[in-house]
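During the reporting period the student researcher (J.K.) took over the structure-prediction task from the postdoctoral fellow and processed the backlog of single-chain submissions. One of the processed entries is reproduced below for the supervisory committee.
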Amino acid sequence: MCSDQAEFKMFVALWNRMQNIYTPSIHFLMADWLEQAWHSGDRRLLLQAFRSCGKSTIVGLFAAWLIYRDPNLRLMVLAADSMLAKKMVRNVKRIIERHPLTSSLKPDKLDQWGTERFTVNRSLELRDPSMLARGMSSNITGSRADVIICDDVEVPKTCDTAGKRAELRERLDEIDYVLVPGGTNLYVGTPHSWFTIYAAAPRQEIGEEIAYLHGYKRLTIPVLDECGQSMWPERFSLDDIERIRSSAGPNKFKSQMMLIPVNIADGVLDIGNLRFYDSDLYKSAELQGLYIDGKRMVSASSWWDPSFGKSGGDRSVLAIIFADDEGNYYLHHMAYIDIDPDSQIDEATQQCRQVAVIAKRFYLPSVTIEINGIGRFLPNILRRELAEMRVPCAVKELSNSRPKDLRIMESFDAVMAARALYVHKHIRKTPFLTEMQEWRPGLKNNHDDGLDAVAGALSLEPVRLKRHYMSGRQSWQSGNGHHQADTNFKV
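J.K. obtained the following structure tokens:
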């Protein structure tokens, strides 16, 4: 490094001053660590910092600073998908174009200045560009790089099953064939699984004898320090952090904000956090709304997870949830749907008729059907039955591809932690509570059909009940009455 070259902290401060923004202390902390690691010759680095703290911004500036120091360097960005990788490359391009210390590096030929790769003015003729973006599924065979930045390579879609986690490790192992001897490998991200690649200790459950990133120099910055104070108080006050904790739930908060890998098995559902009630749902003509225990309901969601399974197999379950304006959820009704095998009516129609009757009874604005498998042909049958019964209820179709264990935990996590899930006492007579007590994530043959249906209802974007309906439609929402406006204006 030449004596007249700026240190990284100065490089960052100059850039931020050009943007008319201040540089928070947490960004200086990351910048200091990256620069010291670079000067000390540490070439295996792991930077973990809480979500939305600007770690990718700092790493982008670090990439630009490295090119500023040595224009002959070749950098590769790997991300979960190519769009994320291109985003960082575009950011570094803009920095090089506009930073007062790097503007001379922009080449005259536009073909050297692409969206996913660019080459600065440099003294060496090299086959690989100055910076290249690649997704995890891309072919990197034949490429060479002096620095590889793995920016958020671990995200839910790359680690939510054992197969995907194994594939992620296999892809990352290819880095050794791309990185030149003495090159730098920098990982940037947050843990999304107990079996995270960022774990400090080996996961013996999957046969690891050493941690995947064993020997890497680490910087870990959770949102709260050891004294419980915010690491970025100007942007994340303690009240803001508590709101994030409440909305995200304890498991997600631990992993994404405190950077503690979470074992999903430690979050087994605790029925002690449920709150029970025995009030009926009633419609108030005077107040024009639906009420439970004196509280007005402001949204409703219903989820039907259908099945034609025989006894002992999957069950067909409909779950109905109402919500009040205080953030409480009311699991008001669950139907484990049975059919009459001796009936002359086909099984699909029998189930749809039962769902239509329930939709009418509870004034449902819509029913969502999980259409994976046999559910694909049920929506039209249900629409027919609703029409014949003159029930003004919409039918929505949704396909699920995410693992069931994750869907259940993510849907229940925050609401259970807040003790905001109320359950009608009649549900004690269903298998639901037994499912909750006996459920273990990852266990085969879990009896979890009711859990899955309730998780689906919780995950839905609430259907707001304050809507206007045509004549003949459900009329329990407020604001559905007629009003004649005074038109006797003098103009």
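The committee noted the following: The longest strand covers residues 179-189.
J.K. will present the remaining backlog at the next meeting.
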